[in-house]
Amino acid sequence: MKTMVEPKRKVPVVEDVGVIVAGAGISGVAAAVAAARSRAEVVLIERNGFLGGVATAGLMASIGNRFFAEDGKVVVRGIALEIVERLAKMGGTSPKWKSALVPKIAFDPEILKLVLIEMTEESGVKVYLHTFVSDAVVSDGELCGAIIEDKSGREAILGKVVVDATGDADLASKAGIPFNYEPPGSSSLEFRMGNVDLQRTYECFKEYPERYPSDMDAPRSFEEFERNWLENSFFYYPHGGGRKPGSNIALLVEEAVKRGDFAKEKGVITGMDAFGMDGLGWNNTVIINSNFAKISDLDVREESKAELEARRSCFYVAKFLRNYVPGFEKAFIIETAPDLGVRVTRLIIGECTLTREEVDKGCKFDDVVAVGSSGFPGKPYEIPYRCIIPREGERFLIASGKSASTKPRGLLRGMTTCIMLGQAAGTAAAQSAGTGVSTRSLDIRELQRSLMEQNVYLGDDPRLKELGLLS
Description:
The protein is of the alpha+beta class.
């Protein structure tokens, strides 16, 4: 491969702040808002022209309802709860979402964009859109800023603490922070259809309730699907439901394949028969998750090819729905996702690696910064601060659940956990920037108290007493 040497050049420093957050997906927005509310000066950097990441640019417009524990207690609070409540208030989701019956909280991605704008503006976050993080600024082994590139040119932003919320640990890799990466990953390009007669689709499913693909994703039975539609205006078809033999859509897929009207794979795109659906009854729109690619997502050549083919396949899948699925006869695509949805790429090597076994057992950690729920509802489990601290590198934190130190990879990549990690990272970053203490050496009890002041749930009263957070 030919190489060239770039000439040295001076780069203007345009910002010198307390906290830099790279990536404005929901974890990055949560980090930036939490840091700003904790009185830090914050710059949030985003490559797209809007906020939200996978939830908006990726059109994964459905938040897993991990808010509830098995006993009905709401264990996910803080900014995650605030976002959904704001969505409901602005008409972006059903006001009846707050129920353990609702497994996933489908929402209007355009309204989420507005919610996130409001939250960043209200907290005083300075936002840079259409801006790429092209390099890291490292001094004496510490990450102390980012080189950015946009229409204004190549510039530098310096900060006392840096939070990587890119989802791919882009800034971490540029700073030389160790990570793991195991290609190929799993990606998909989602699309949104309008003018869908969801009542007709429901009535069709109701004729053969035994064909509904229960216990695959969510909900767990046809009865739950029916109640969520009739009572809450949420329409769910399980992710992968089109593949389950004998299911409603799988039978239609088989018929179409026999006629030569449909194929499950085209080029590098597979799983076109997955047909995960998240629909909203009040605007007759549906998000379709049905196009996958097994590629090296860090190879722009592979990713470009996959995204081009996936965008074309959205229309192919939509044509099948119009021709074969009742209720979709007059439906049309109103949007294909601007970004390919990448499930997981780089994973930092953290001070602690949270495991599936620890989550399933509901393990406890002295440095807990968030409590998640393992199901719909499920067993509460604690998330330790150390899994977002890289084993090497100072004044640096990871906010994305995709990049946090877990086994298996992506264990915390759900939206609720991403927001919780973002809030924890942002609060810790502000504390570090304000005190001058490194992120690794923070007083964990002070961090926990700060999170609790932001309505973050860290456990019941007996647990808080164990931690010394309640007398």
